[in-house]
Design goal:
The protein is of the alpha/beta class. The chain is built from 14 helices and 17 strands. It has two domains: 137 residues, Aspartate Aminotransferase, domain 1; 255 residues, 3-Layer(aba) Sandwich (Aspartate Aminotransferase, domain 2), CATH 3.40.640.
Length: 407
């Protein structure tokens, strides 16, 4: 993406015009949450001020219009990830709920004592803790596939850990700390050799890589809108329809039922089966607009822009004394983590903020991964479509200020 194109993109994000501590904002925390383009803000505002009504329950015009608008988003999501059917798209509150949903229903209707669940060392807590709890509740065993020093999954070890008793394999599409882009198709192929169900955490992948769930071959893929230029409070679980039909519900209440009596209840077919209660209507509308934004920008432009910026960022960081990169995988997405010798990451983050530069510091909800690298925390700069070379230059200048201060 040419710099002129980036300037045009940047102008679509109102927040980037603000000042922080008397400096123009440099936002480098898109891995935590992305900023929102004006079109998403405007579309959600229109929904609230003109079109808002509950869905699925009303015979009046506004309710029907609201229902149709939400279902159009479902169709858009299905097309965006190449789902087999629109009925494979379940709206949730985000990636965390999607992963909890999958773990819970597999625990209720699939896993049993003695089964094995395989995850990796680079997982976010949301793809660790639910599996720990399910394993504990059913008597299953949780195993962890190691990564190498660069931050890539060791495929030989992964392959050896997948056995006939492996029933679920869950891993991230893109690491939120290392930026590692995992070889999803290879990992799925290994898991499918023993018939395991495969769950992919796509929180960091959806805004940075084309997603084709059919090509991947996974059974479940989940993501959050707010990491893809949409609002918080809404996410997606894309799941194989036959599995969604066979597995039990996750939550119970309105809209997920077929019939209810005091003697018992029957449940609706997916996706309604997993969407109890009133959905986040405005947020679903915002998700749809965010996906359309990504479609309009185009993957070719997005990938080229990201590759250029990541290369520039890593090269510039290598010029600063005492900087150690955490994770140099074969294929890297838009997150770069590092530490600075002699300076705690929280001190670095505080000084950067005084310079108007927003980065994330801490364990990034990946404490086991911090242990792999023997660090308590890292500094993470994560990029979005709105970042440019000037943002990186500002980061480097601010880091040099930190280095000078602590030396």
């Amino acid at each position: 993406m040419e710099q002129g194109g980036v300037a045009g993109i940047r102008n679509q994000f109102p927040v980037l015009g603000r000042q922080v501590n008397d400096h123009p904002l440099v936002y480098l925390d898109s891995g935590a949450t992305t900023q929102k383009p004006r079109r998403v803000i405007d579309r959600m505002t229109q929904c609230l001020t003109r079109d808002y009504a509950t869905v699925h329950r009303g015979v009046y015009s506004m309710s029907q219009e609201s229902t149709e608008a939400c279902e159009r988003v479902r169709h858009l999501v299905a097309s965006f990830v190449n789902a087999r059917s629109v009925n494979e798209v379940v709206f949730t509150s985000g990636t965390t709920e999607s992963l909890n949903l999958i773990a819970t229903i597999l625990g209720r209707g699939y896993l049993k004592s003695g089964d094995e669940i395989l995850i990796t060392q680079m997982e976010h807590h949301a793809n660790i803790v639910p599996w720990q709890e399910v394993a504990k509740s059913v008597g299953a065993r949780l195993k962890v596939a190691p990564i190498d020093s660069s931050g890539d999954i060791r495929l030989d070890e992964f392959n050896s850990l997948v056995t006939d008793t492996t029933k679920v394999v869950a891993f991230t599409h893109v690491s939120n700390v290392l930026g590692t882009v995992n070889p999803v198709e290879d990992l799925v192929r290994i898991a499918k050799n023993v018939g395991a169900i495969v769950v992919v955490d796509g929180a960091q992948g959806i805004a940075h890589r084309p997603v084709d769930v059919r090509k991947m071959g996974c059974d479940f893929y989940c993501f959050s809108a707010h990491k893809a230029y949409g609002p918080t409070g809404v996410g997606v679980l894309v799941g194989r329809y036959d599995l969604l039909t066979q597995l039990p519900p996750y939550k119970f209440g309105g809209d997920m039922i077929e019939t209810v009596t005091f003697d018992g209840s029957t449940y609706a077919l997916p996706p309604a089966k997993f969407e109890a209660g009133t959905p986040p209507i405005v947020e679903i509308i915002g998700l749809g607009e965010a996906i359309q934004f990504l479609i309009d920008v185009g993957w070719h432009a997005l990938l080229a822009h990201e590759h250029q910026l990541i290369s520039y960022l890593m090269n510039q960081l290598s010029t600063i004394p005492g900087i150690q990169l955490i994770g140099t995988p074969r294929e890297k997405s838009a997150a770069v983590s590092f530490v600075m010798s002699g300076v705690h990451p929280h001190d670095v983050g505080t000084i950067l903020d005084q310079e108007g530069v927003a980065v994330r510091v801490g364990h990034h909800c990946a404490q086991p991964l911090m242990g792999v690298y023997n660090v308590p925390a890292t500094i993470r700069a994560s990029l979005g479509v709105y970042n440019n070379y000037q943002d990186i230059d500002r980061l480097i200048e601010a880091l040099l200020t930190v280095r000078k201060y602590f030396s």
